[in-house]
Amino acid sequence: MICPPVMVAPPPIKFPSLLVVEDDASTFRSDMLRFARLQLRDDFLAEEAVQESLVLAWEKRGQFKNRSQLKTWVFSILKNKIIDIMRSRARSPVLVIDVDEIPESAGDAMFDEDGNWRDDARPSNWGDPEQCLSDRQFFRVLEVCLERLPDNAARVFMMREILGFEVNEICKELSISVSNCSVILHRARIILRMCLTDRWFNSGRPHDEL
Amino acid sequence: MMNCKQACILISDVLDNKLGLLQRAKLRIHLMRCAECKAYDKNMRILRAGCRILIVQEPD
Fold it and tell me: Of A10, A74, A204, B54, whose CB count within 10 A is highest?
């Protein structure tokens, strides 16, 4: 008989964890609030989600080896809270998702009558993805651009791209058709790309030519 | 022949896993020939990657 290798877990690193969590929680707090507000677009609900996440984090404060692990975890709690809130809100009958919140014309302006790119709308090559994503300014501008999206388009886009829902789940949660969902996502992406191009890529950042 | 406006709709559909093999192949052919749509596609992928890691960005 072959014995399986014995796995020895490394001993957990002990922090004076009360202090660590307290310190970090207050530094994360403003980030968390910003993130929750961005997605929920409601200050009261955002505050509540952050508060509840921090309470949960406090209860499990002993489990973390380092700050970045803690941050990832606290944000994953927050993400789940936001998903819960979005789900319960989606079920309320007042929410009507209008597919034309971003009009079709937003994208049409990029193309000529044959459906080819207009000269002034040709996409620029943003360059190396890794380089883009190591640029803090990219994320600052991305947040601004997300804030500027109309509310429902933002909700659908963020459910897809930040909270990681599949399209059919979004449709179910928000009671919209798959084709409407796709149209909303497509238009939101067009707007975000234009916004990032204007405010980040074209704003003096060194870049490659297409 | 697919035009750029149609290609951009398909680029979005690919991101949502909505495209069949045939349409994927047609899009790929368009992207091989069209630098603008290729740049658009790349921008979309950067946008997606950016959203995925937005929340774990360190504060300033």
Answer: A74
